[in-house]
Amino acid sequence: MSEQDYRDLRREYDAEALRRTMLAASPMEQFGQWLAAAQEKHPDDATSMSLATVDSQGWPSARIVLLKHFDEQGLVWYTDTHSRKGQALAANPRAELLFYWKGLERQVRIQGRVEAVSAAEADQYFNSRPLGSRLSAAASQQSSVVPDRAVLEAAVAAMQERYPDGQVPRPARWGGYRLLPQRFEFWQGRTSRLHDRFEYVRQDDGWLIQRLAP
Ligand SMILES: Cc1cc2nc3c(=O)[nH]c(=O)nc-3n(C[C@H](O)[C@H](O)[C@H](O)COP(=O)(O)O)c2cc1C
């Protein structure tokens, strides 16, 4: 069917309230609490996040990546740095990460500047990945055009032959990025669309916390 109408499709959000008094002073701590709750509710998907970038022409672009580490400094994911997102980040090292935890009726947005993780950090994570993932990363130039799947499979087989002992080195173009948060927004669904939203905005001396209209 080529046409569908969803105007009458709606649901009530009524899981729980988010109050100013419940918020942690540090947004990363607040994020950690929500992520832990999300991992209980969605053990498979909690760390998947939408990464939005803007390229040198001003075009936005979004895709899912997996959160691999976070701490007070920032949030880390790994990818091919020559991919479309890598090229956008090279031209414009700013991004937004978005988590949606359906079962909790929660959304978190985190905006900030992005920097590359160190080669040592990237090596450490790359070497911890299963062999198949390392071979694929070495064989696939992410976001480039390929004629067919057979070409990719042949490239993986060639890597397997090249590294029979499984010691696949991290490709130079494969690495990690860390988003250094400037702004967080925590959204909790409430009834009749009167949702709770709080933003944390980084200031010189800490975080400004304010409620936003839904
Ligand atoms: C659940 C899920 C997890 C993903 N995790 C990653 C990831 O951690 N790193 C990555 O490079 N791509 C990941 N991808 C693939 C990306 O969404 C995307 O297709 C790829 O990175 C190429 O994006 P680009 O052409 O915009 O650079 C994931 C996709 C899904 C659906």
UniProtKB/TrEMBL annotation:
UniProt domain Pyridoxine 5'-phosphate oxidase dimerisation C-terminal: residue ranges: 174-214
Catalyzed reactions: pyridoxine 5'-phosphate + O2 = pyridoxal 5'-phosphate + H2O2; pyridoxamine 5'-phosphate + O2 + H2O = pyridoxal 5'-phosphate + H2O2 + NH4(+)
EC number, as in UniProt: 1.4.3.5
Group of enzyme by EC: oxidoreductase
Boundaries of every Pyridoxamine 5'-phosphate oxidase N-terminal domain copy: 45-161
PROSITE patterns recorded: PYRIDOX_OXIDASE
GO molecular function annotation: pyridoxamine phosphate oxidase activity
Physiological role: Catalyzes the oxidation of either pyridoxine 5'-phosphate (PNP) or pyridoxamine 5'-phosphate (PMP) into pyridoxal 5'-phosphate (PLP).
Subunit structure: Homodimer.
Protein name: Pyridoxine/pyridoxamine 5'-phosphate oxidase
Gene: pdxH
